[in-house]
Every structure is written in C-alpha cells, then in structure tokens.
Design goal:
The chain is mainly alpha-helical. Helix content is 36%, strand content 3%.
C-alpha cells in the first residue's frame, strides 16, 4: 500500500496573517534629497568642526545610491535639518525612532482590525 509522503516543515502549528500595516510618518518629517544634502553643510562633528567637502560628498553619494526617493523621504527629528542643527544618532535616538516606527505600525494594525483600545 502506498504511503502518504510527509513534507518536513519547521512549523508544526499553523500561522495566520491577520493583517498588516506600513508606517507612514507625519509630513513634518518629510524631506527631499536636495534639501537634505544642502543642510548637511551645517552639520558639525562632535569635535565642533563642520562637515568637510569629502564627507559631504560621501553622504550625498550614500543618499543617491540608497534608493531613497529624491522627491521625498522621511528622517527622524534627531537627524532632520528642520528640527535640529546638531544631528545625533546615539542609542537613545535609535530607540525613540524604533518606538515611533514599530509602535505606529502596530497601532495601525490594531486600528484596522478593530482592536485598538484608547
């Protein structure tokens, strides 16, 4: 008698996708590539020196090759030139950005599924 072939799987329990959401920041965090590139000239290193032309050119190339939309992308307040003249990228700022993005996505999923309790 032929036997049924079992396909090995890593998951034994079923996985259900309830819904998904993509986080979209507020418009106040939107910036175009040219504005960002120009504002990098105002940024200072921790030692107080302004960004050198080589560093500015490097940052510009990173933005251009990163796939960021030239007409508009988003930056967190700690890096956004309209919100700070002294960009910071430490652990506290990274946690704040992660909370903003992940919290916003989770909140949107809960809202879409009718589970958001305010």
């Amino acid at each position: 008698m032929p036997t049924r072939r079992q396909t090995p799987t890593l998951l034994r329990e079923p996985v259900y996708m309830v819904d998904f959401a993509v986080f979209k920041p507020d418009d106040e965090l939107k910036i175009n590539l040219e504005d960002c590139s120009e504002s990098a000239w105002k940024w200072k290193h921790p030692d107080g020196e302004y960004v050198s032309p080589d560093t500015h050119e490097f940052v510009k190339k990173v933005f251009e090759k990163s796939g960021i939309d030239k007409n508009g992308s988003y930056l967190p307040k700690n890096l956004h030139p309209q919100h700070t003249d002294d960009p910071r990228g430490g652990l506290d700022e990274s946690f704040a950005e992660a909370r903003l993005v992940m919290g916003g996505a989770v909140e949107e999923v809960l809202r879409k599924t009718g589970r958001l309790l305010l």
